[in-house]
Structures are given as structure tokens and as C-alpha cells.
Amino acid sequence: MCSRCPTGPSLDIWDYIRSREVEVPSIYYAHQREVFLRDGMWMASNEWAVPPEGVATETRMVRYRTVGDATLTAAVESDADTIDKIIEETAATRLTERGATRGDDRVSEAAMEDRKKEGYF
Predict the structure, then answer these.
(1) Which SS3 state, helix, strand or coil, does residue 78 take?
(2) 43 touches 74 (CB < 8 A)
(3) What are the two backbone dihedrals, phi and then psi, of residue 76, each rounded to the nearest 5 degrees?
(4) Taking a C-beta distance cutoff of 8 angstroms, is the pair 120, 112 a contact?
(5) N or C end of the chain: which has fewer CB within 10 A?
(6) Is residue 106 over pLDDT 70?
(7) Residue ranges of region Disordered (predicted)?
(8) Residue 78 has what pLDDT?
(9) Which stretch of DSSP H or E encloses residue 61?
(10) How many Cα atoms are found within 13 Å in the side-chain-facing hemisphere of 29?
């Protein structure tokens, strides 16, 4: 684990991606996306994650810090549209994926593990 990183190994991973010029999917970069607020998390409005009736969508600059189930994985507000900006943001953030961007963690501590046992992954 990265001893200098409050976010654990993710800063080291982004440093590696930059140094090796690894291509990453665009979902990790900030874009203007149509989102809605659910449980304090920004969810993308798409065919899998539909806002509840009466909940408005809005366009915000967001990115995904992790990729997962579109109905449970939230985006974070960000302007990090380059690797360097992602590294800068990651170094400064105190926001973790657990509880902040993973809807499973809002259900229970073991929700993701339960889904694995049920054969989801």
C-alpha cells in the first residue's frame, strides 16, 4: 500500500498508468453527464439507472473512480479530464469508493460480498 497516499494504492496505480502511457476507458475521465441525486450520490441517468418519479436530472461534470453495476455505482463531481488531473485529484481527496460511490455499501457492509455469493460476479 502506498504509504504517502490517503487513498491507498490508487495513487500508485494512476502513477503507473501515466508512466506506462496505459490507455484507460473514457468513463474514468470527467465529462458532462446527465445525472440525478440518489442517496447523496450522483447516478448517471441511463437505461439501467432511471431517476425515480419526481427526481430531476441535471448535467454535471463528473467521472467514475471505479467501474461497476450502473444501477449501483455513482460518479463524483470532478473536472479531472486528464491523467495528471486525476492524479492531482486522487492525491487531494478524502473521499473513498466505499460508501461514497458504491451503492452496495449503502445497503449493508456485506452487500457486495452477498452479491458475489449469489453469482452476480
Answers:
(1) coil
(2) yes
(3) -120, 145
(4) no
(5) N
(6) no
(7) 96-121
(8) 95
(9) strand 58-63
(10) 9
Q: How far apart are CA 33 and CA 5, in angstroms?
A: 29
Q: Give the C-alpha distances (Å, rounded to integers) separating 12 from 2, 25, 89, 93.
A: 7, 18, 13, 14
Residue 111 CB: number of other CB atoms within 10 A?
15
- Which position has the higher pLDDT, 22 or 105? 22
Q: Give the pLDDT mean for 29-41.
A: 94
CA atoms within 13 A on the CB side of 94: 0
pLDDT at position 112 over 80:
no
- What pLDDT shows up at residue 3? 44
What region does 77 belong to: left with phi over 0, alpha with psi -120 to 50, or beta?
beta
Let me know the angle formed at the C-alpha of 79 by 75 and 84, rounded to the nearest 5 degrees. Answer: 110
Residue 74 has a CB neighbour count (10 Å cut-off) of 25
- The Cα-based distances of 38 to 1, 2, 20, 49, 67 in angstroms read 32, 32, 37, 10, 18
Domain residue spans in the chain? 26-81+94-117
